[in-house]
Each structure stands twice: as C-alpha cells, then as structure tokens.
Amino acid sequence: MPDNPGEASAVVVDQVVRVFTPRRQPPVRALDNVSLTIDPGEVHGLLGPNGAGKTTLVKILSTVLLPTSGRATICGYDVVRATRQVQPLIGIVFGGERGLYTRLTARQNLEYWGALYRLPGAQVRPRANALLERVGLADKAEKRVETYSRGMKQRLHLARGLMGDARVLFLDEPTTGMDPLAARDFRRLVGELKGEGRTILLATHDMVEAETVCDRVTLIDHGRIIATETPRSLSQMMSRFQRVDVEGADTALLDEVRAIAGVMGVETEDASARIQVDTEDALRAVLKLVVDRGITAVQTSLPSLEEVYVGLIGDRGLEV
Amino acid sequence: MVRGVLAGVRLQLILYRQYPDSFIPLMTAPLYTIIFVMIVRHGGRADLSGYAVVAPAFISLWWFALFHGGLVVNSDRWSQTLELHVAAPTSFPAVIFGRILTVTLVGQLSFVEVWLVGKYLLRTPIAIQHPGVLTATLLATAFAMAATALFMACLFVLVRNAFTMTNSISYPFYVLGGILVPVALLPGFVQPVSRLVFLSWSADLLRASLSAAPVADVGFRLAMIVLLGAAGFAVAADLMRRVVQRVRNTGELGLR
Predict the structure, then answer these.
(1) Is A104 within 8 Å of B18 when comparing Cβ atoms?
(2) Are B99 and B69 in contact (CB under 8 A)?
C-alpha cells in the first residue's frame, strides 16, 4: 500500500535537504529545500552545472542515498521508509564507464540484473534479447563489455536499467561520450519509453537533449531549484533575451539601434547583426527603425534553452 | 533471498571463468606442500607429513575467502556496481553471500589438490582414516570461512586500504589457526585466543581425521566450528546492514 494512496504523481520531492559532512571540512549543502513533482509518463529534465545537485537528487530518489531532511516518494512510496516497494518500480542508468561487469558479455550482464530484478527465470533471456535488439546490440550480445565503445556501453546501461521493466527511470547524463548519431538514437529511444507510459527523470548538461525530449525541465544550481517550466515557457520567461537578427544594416543604423532604450547589445558578423533587447517596447522600436530604413531581412527569435540556462545560472566558465 | 544467493553463485562462477588468474592459490598450494613436506621429511619427522600436506590447503582456502570473498564488495565499489546493487530489489547481503559461498566451495578444491600432490608427487600418501569426520569438518569449515569472508567484506567497505589490510591480517590467522603448528604447541598465552578462531578447531579436527587414532569429542569440536561460524554470520549480517545504512547516510557508497 503506498504511503500516499491518493498520490497521482510519479515522483514527489518535498523540501529535500542533503548535507554532506566531509572529514575536516565544512559541511556541504548539496540540496537545499528542493521540491519537485513529476507526473506519470512525463519526461522531466534536470539541468544544472557540475556540482549543482543533480546526481545527489537522483541518488536519493533511487534509494542509494538518504536525505538529511524532507521527503521524497516514487508512485506514492517513501524512498526512505518504503525502500522495498520503491526499488522494483525504478530503473537507474548512470552515464560513463561505470556500473557494468566489463569481463562479462552484454547478455550475461543483462541476465544477472534480470535475476536481481526478480524476473521469472523463463523471462530473463527473452527480455535480455528484446532489449539488446532494441538498443542495437543484438549482434554484439556475446562480446565482452570491455571490448565495447563508450556509446555501446551507454546503450547497454539503458538496457540494464530497463531489465526490471521500471515505471520510473532515472537517467543520469546518459549520453555522455556518445557520438551525435548515437545520441540522436538514444533520444528517439527515450521518446519510445515515454510512449510506453514510463516516467523519466533525465539529469543532463545537454541543452539540445533537454529541449528535444523533455516535457518540462528544472534548472538547479547550488542545490536550489531556479525554475521548473516547459522548455518553451522557460525561453519565454527569458524574454529579456529576445533578439532581432538583421541583414545588411550599416554602422550608422546600428549606432542608432544601440541608442534605443532597452537594447542590451548588438553583435555583428560580416553583414549580419544580432540585436538583444530586454523589453517589448525596445523590440517594437528596433523593428520599426530597421524596417523604416528599408531593411527587409529581419527575424525575431526566442533564446534557445542553452541561452536561458546561461542567462539564469550565469556564465561561469570552467568554475563549478 | 534464495534468488539473490543463486544470482550471486552464478555471477561468481562466470567471473571465475573470465578471470583464470583467480586460481593462482591452486598453483601455489602444491609448492607450499612440497616445501612443508620436505622440511618435515628431512627433519626426520615423516609422521608429521599429514600436517605438512593439510597446511597449504588451509592457506589456499583462506586466500580464496579473504582475497576473493572479502573483496567482493570492494570490487563492486570499484566497478561502481555497488550502488546499483543496493538500489535493486533483491537482498544485497544474499547476493554477496552467494558469491562468497561459491568462493569458499571453490577454495575447497585445495584439499583435493594437496592430497593428490602428496600421494602421487611426493609419494606421501595421506590415509583418510575417518572420512565422515573429514567431510563434516570440510563442510563446517566452508560455512565458517564464508562467515569470516562476509565479515571481512563488510569491514573492507569501511576502509580505503583494504588490500593492505587483507595482506597483513592473514599471517596472525595462520598462527592462531594452528594450520601448520598445532595450537597445543603454541605459547600458553596464545592458546585461549586461538580457540576463538574457528580455523584452530578445523585444523585440529582435519588432522585428527587423517590419524588412525579414534577422534575424540567429534560432535563438540564440529559444534565449535559451526558455532563460531554462526556467530561470525550473525555479526557479519548485522554489520552488513549497518554498513549499507551508514554509507547510504554518509554518501560513501559510490566512492572509489
């Protein structure tokens, strides 16, 4: 029986705090009153820089780490008090080289995890076969994992995470190291999993990935949630980053544009210019000016999720 | 529980096939047998050949239990499968127990091996005078050894230098276990401590099973091995629960 029988959400995170206390060092507040709700069948992106708290949150939800305070549930079951009920419902896919027995073949890895996810004996091999086929590794099923490329290991990770037929999947930077084609296939696969009604929490750095596959994204930084919106809403929220792209504007015209109140910047490259504005009034004034001067190649656009990310979190270069 | 144990057994058997270097103790045991048998033979004590043959088998078994069984959790931590195990619905201690049980049973091959070496290579046939006692002793020893390995496996999660620790704790156990030099010949102050180490009971009983003399107090001595093993299991199982809870709390589960 779920702790919250009426709970309609697949994932609920309520005021979760996680403090790490390393020896001889000051405590680190990795998550600071994080609250989040994910609906069944939703693909939810968790975006943030290194050290933002993405992996810490994924670990708490997957029962391998305890929160310092607060509460989190999966399909109504508390991740701390009802661990045994939570574990059959979830699948975890970590990025990178970790989490596989590299001297074992892909099939042996999957069959082992199938046993651990309590699949009936007769179902283990057919399910492993189906998943290997699905992630494009059927012809490499009998090869040792140590001979796999990083992208192939990532796909095997995903298959491993699906062996238990999880209702909620946690994907922690799953396309790390994948080439663009493999990453595109991976995103298609995420779309298929969503089509099957699975709930997916995708922790990633990759803005294109988040924009392509996520229904909603949460921006997280320094353990705090900055915003949770659809990728499009987030872009609209950032209307101060609206821009006007023009072709053929001369220097004099661009100087006039710079003088308009609300114009944040003008970048030029050859005959093109990108004008950034932070108000609707400035946008109208810029459009009127350039059209009045006979410029016809004009285009307005909203920022990409990457620009929103940089805008909200700040461009801190290599700093974490 | 049973499913977890079986999954652990299967995994360990596959890993043994993939890591043939794991069987190095089976190669060193005959060499130790030759050394020990030569020492007792040239010392004019051929009657102690049984001791010389049995000791390498215990060393080998201990090696399997400690270096394979004891490091099972640590190796999962290194390959970063530990977190995935803890997050899986099957009991993690059950899986570990299955793996360690396999290790211990494979380690028992050492006894067959050294007996064959003694008989055919060194022409030192070791007559098994009490096969029932021998079989029971080997089974009880496997159980107690698995418990010890499980305990070590838990302990090694908490320490970063598990390999160093593994190396350094072996020799005191060889002495306290009386695997070559019987406990009765050890200094008086060591003997009470020695009796708390199941190996001392195992080694004595195993040697007794090779001797023509009737074996005294078989039931009691077997019970001591099983009792010490059971105590080890109880402590290890509790320690495993505490360790997993602790590392979930401290966030050290995935540390390398």
Answers:
(1) yes
(2) yes
Q: Assign 3-class secondary structure to chain B.
A: CHHHHHHHHHHHHHHHHHCHHHHHHHHHHHHHHHHHHHHHHHCCCHHHHHHHHHHHHHHHHHHHHHHHHCCHHHHHHHCCCHHHHHHCCCCHHHHHHHHHHHHHHHHCHHHHHHHHHHHHHCCCCCCCCCHHHHHHHHHHHHHHHHHHHHHHHHHHHHCCCHHHHHHHHHHHHHHHCCCCCCHHHCCHHHHHHHCCCHHHHHHHHHHHHHCCCCCCCHHHHHHHHHHHHHHHHHHHHHHHHHHHHHHHHHCCCCCC
Chain B contacts of A104, Cβ < 8 Å?
A: 14-15, 18
* Test mutation, A16, A19, A55, A65, chain B, max B CBs within 10 A: A65
Say whether B10 and A115 touch across the interface (CB within 8 A).
yes
- pLDDT, position A2: 59
Long-range CB contacts for residues B74-78, cutoff 8 Å, separation at least 24: B74/B153, B74/B156, B74/B157, B74/B162, B77/B157, B77/B253, B77/B254, B77/B255, B77/B256, B78/B256
pLDDT tens digit sequence for A300-317: 876 666 666 666 666 554
Q: Which ipTM score applies to this complex?
A: 0.81
